[in-house]
# Entry
Amino acid sequence: MKQAETRETGILDKFSLQDRVAIVTGGGNGIGKSISIAFAQVGARVVVAEMDTAAGNATAEEIRALGGEAMPLAIDVLDSNQVDELVAKSMAEFGKIDILVNNVGGTRKSRRCPIIEMKEEVWDLILTLNLKSNFLCTRAVARVMIEQKSGNIINIASNAGLRPYPSQPPYGAAKAALINFTQSMAVQLAPYNIRVNAIAPGTVVTASADYLGDRDERARKRGTLMRRAGRVEDITPAAIYLASDASNYVTGVTIETTGGPPFSGFTLEEAEREWKMHMKSLK
Amino acid sequence: MKQAETRETGILDKFSLQDRVAIVTGGGKGIGKGIAQAFAQDGARVAIAEVDSDAGNAALEEIRGMGGKALFVQTDVLDSNQVDELVAKSMAEFGKIDILVNNVGGTRGTLRRPILGIDGETWDMIIDLNLRTTFLCCKAVTKIMMEQKRGNIINITSGAGLRPYPGQLPYGAAKAGVINFTLSLAVQLSSYNIRVNVIAPGSIATPGMTYLGDTDERARKRGVSLGRAGRPEDIAMAAIYLASDASAYVTGFVLPVNGGPNLGGKMLEEAQDAWEATKSI
# Structure
């Protein structure tokens, strides 16, 4: 089966987002930016919701340069009025909203510290940034999607929400809550043909994570099975899969793009040593 | 952005299986057949391992009829000699093995019984059919994939392995075993660039399931959020994601394709009631 013939049979069309309208929050930088561009590359029209005007405009320009359609909007997703405006302007421009990617979040470089040193303000900031922002955007978009009787919501969670994250407990707690919220929304919105899923990235190399040093080395030390940090290109195909008809029967799921799960009682070094001993015994 | 341009930018190529070689066990029927066909449509050469030769040959013809490349090897994956032969014949024909899909499994129509009604032979049969077959096939391809320093294994488990499955105790236990085995194998094989993942289908409408009646109706009653049963294509698409470079950073992961979190019919009714209550305000 040659490339051209393969394409005629059209199985990859299931992954297409041709003519879909997507809102990507935090679409100006990092993971949000690459999802915005990737969605446009597979045919979607993209609303880049980004607080940093220059970054949002830059993403939109990149999409247009590729021949795609994009609209940047300077939005603070922590403000429900601005979120309502985001939805209203998207509807005015494109007439529908097929996909929402809730990508805003992060640690705002908050310091790692033990619980007794942790400030209330930091707790509130991190929970609001990662969880409330998601609630506000989901609520606003759900109003539109329920009327459309179709929709697709993708939440960007984190490996930190899947297991203990002692270095930044508020971030871990917020992301765990986000995963639970995703599941509840999947059930609430299923009767309206709206799917709600999450992606949990592990360590990802982005410009904003530069301050953490060599991320590949760090991922290896942490025992990541793939022995490297993730790249934004590792996350975007998961978003395409979840946003497209390819995942029609998938809702309430968290795709773990983490480079492999941690495991108990056994280090990667031990696993490798056992392989070596076994291979030696064969010789 | 037009379709043609989109393709030139090539982001969908990440999902391509062009020139990959895949073995699909139980590839003659139901979910396995759906996966074998989808892989072939996506460019892969497929070895169909199937115990039922009529079904295997029919699946082979269908793929060839679409212009795809495939091989049928009649195989009982419960027999390690036949599994070794499957691997040897696939290597002889295609020269490499990139992907293994362990799809064989099921309940063999065993009746739902409380624990006191399950005999040892039934227990052994169901555990072997679902878990031992996975072990044998993984072991056989591991030798080759380690040498290739490249490979991809996808196991098919079931929602029954993710939570209590009182209807069929041995099936639930075996499928939970498949999940744990997948995670451990992902760790063991990670240093050889072999990814190991598992798909957990919910109720899927396959010919083998028709004896249960209307699968969509049954899924609704069971509290499946999307209110319908899945189709083999739904599993095939998940398999394309996991088998291709699109999931290059995904290993040791359980991907449920089940129409939503199963909370039981009662919780779904409650959620529906909450909606109705809101409407009347």
About this structure: The first strand of chain B starts at residue 21 and ends at 25. Confidence is low (pLDDT under 50) at residues 1-9 of chain B. The longest helix of chain B spans residues 120-148.
